[in-house]
Amino acid sequence: MTTLKFIHAADIHLGRPFSGLRRSSPELGNLFLQAGYDAWDRIVTTAIHRGVDFLTLGGDVFDAPNPTVRARVAFKNGVERLYDARIPVYLAVGNHDPLKSFPESLRTLPGLNLFGPNPEGMRFAGQEQTDGVMIFGAGFEKAVITDSLVRKFRRDPGLDLAIGVVHTNVAGTSGHENYSPCTLDDLRAAGMDIWCLGHVHSSEILSQDPLILYPGTSQGAHINESGLRGCHLIVAQHGSPAVAEFIPLAPVCWLRVDLDVTECHSAEDLLDDAVALCSGTSLDADVVRAVVVRLNLTGQDGSQGLGTIASDPEFFEVLSERLATLSLPVFPESVRDSTRSSASLNSLKDEEGFLGDFLELCRRSVEEPSMRDHLLGGVQAELLKKLHRRYIPAELDLERLKNDPKAVATLLDEAGDLVAGMFLESRETGS
């Protein structure tokens, strides 16, 4: 088998709206309306320009089971462009675009190979040297699949290269519904040389040999999908581990940025520092057309009370105007206050009584893993009493926080500030 080259993408979610964003101009609204479609168009263009042998899609091409006309037309145009370039498409649908409701008008598009609900192998009909290449896949028949599709996959004997394509949640990845669950051992047991997955929206290589990867969503839609987004170019050769290259393609990038206000003495200083910080984002301007930031105010807040400006609509409006004029336009998603009160918490920790004990408990919960896990378990239990799991914010995801002491420390600092502020306020007012 000669060297094989293909692109894998997933979770394109054509037709998905952006969320949690105040739109400050018609131009920005148009940009975000088009961003997801532009990402799909860039996947197609990249496949053609790189001269790949085929394109694999790991599901959730559409955001809704009954996609809009715009979404259907965009997908059709992309597949047709690839067909004209002799690049076939292999699609294993997911929970957002299941077979049960996949548009009939798209099923028979020339060049589109749509996998059914049970694993099946399709031989790549490329050059003679690639006759030993087979792509295996299975799609979601309906929106909710709780059984493992991966465990039904098996490699055919005598192949030079076997590629698996499926929408799945590996090892219960947090923040995503546990649809078609599997483990890394399940994936390896199927005997594939490469696994091209979909469902998890972050780009991640789970294994190098065999190559197992999530490309992530091609265009982030909210702040929890921050950073560069795109697809993977995969190069494979019989007898050698496949190599994957991440290709950023998303025209809009979401970022979290922290601004220390300790040295700021006025709202004007804060504004200047915010603009300078946001203008320093080092992103590829050839790919990214706009950046959306969540500005998190940190550090020691002095007597000016700059932390409260996070909730000031006029500050947000002026900041939006300044950022929109940068060479790479930046738009604020929100401004958050994580500053510390000018009354040092370190001094309050020495107090006897409730407040000192509480702040000492916060410190120990950060530094001692057993106390941290116990605290997180209690918080998660309380949340689950009131909320369905899918609505728990990513910032409070138990599994993520267990492995991220810095994030726990930030949350506990915020809790300590809040409780200390309430305590001091009640002390001053005598209530």
Model description:
The protein is an alpha/beta fold. It has three domains: 4-248, Metallo-dependent phosphatases (Purple Acid Phosphatase, chain A, domain 2), CATH 3.60.21.10; 252-342, no CATH class; 347-431. Helices cover 32% and strands 22% of the residues. The protein is built from eleven helices and 17 strands. A six-stranded mixed beta sheet has the order 4-3-2-1-13-14. Strands 5-6-7-10-12-11 form a six-stranded mixed beta sheet, with no helix packed on it. Helix 5 packs parallel to helix 6. The relative contact order is 0.10. The model has no long low-confidence stretch (mean pLDDT 85).
Write the layout of secondary structure elements.
Layout: E1 4-9, H1 26-49, E2 54-57, H2 69-84, E3 89-91, H3 104-107, E4 112-114, E5 120-123, E6 133-137, E7 161-167, E8 169-170, E9 181-182, H4 184-189, E10 194-198, E11 204-208, E12 211-214, E13 230-237, E14 240-248, E15 252-260, H5 267-279, E16 290-298, H6 313-323, E17 330-337, H7 345-348, H8 354-367, H9 369-386, H10 398-402, H11 405-429
Parallel strand pairs: 1-2, 2-3, 3-4, 6-7, 7-10, 8-9, 10-12, 15-16, 16-17
Antiparallel strand pairs: 1-13, 5-6, 11-12, 13-14
Radius of gyration: 25 Å
- The chain-level mean pLDDT equals 85
Count of distinct structural domains: 3
Fraction of residues in β-strands: 15-25%
Order of helices and strands: EHEHEHEEEEEEHEEEEEEHEHEHHHHH
- The CATH architecture of the largest domain would be 4-Layer Sandwich
Count of DSSP strands = 17
Annotation field: number of helices: 11
Largest sheet: 6 strands, mixed
Low-confidence residue ranges: none
CATH class label of the largest domain:
Alpha Beta
Query: Can you identify the CATH superfamily of the largest domain?
Result: Metallo-dependent phosphatases
Give the class from helix and strand content and strand pairing.
Answer: alpha/beta
Helix share bin: 25-40%
User: What is the first-to-last residue Cα distance?
Assistant: 80 Å
* Biggest sheet strand line-up: 4-3-2-1-13-14
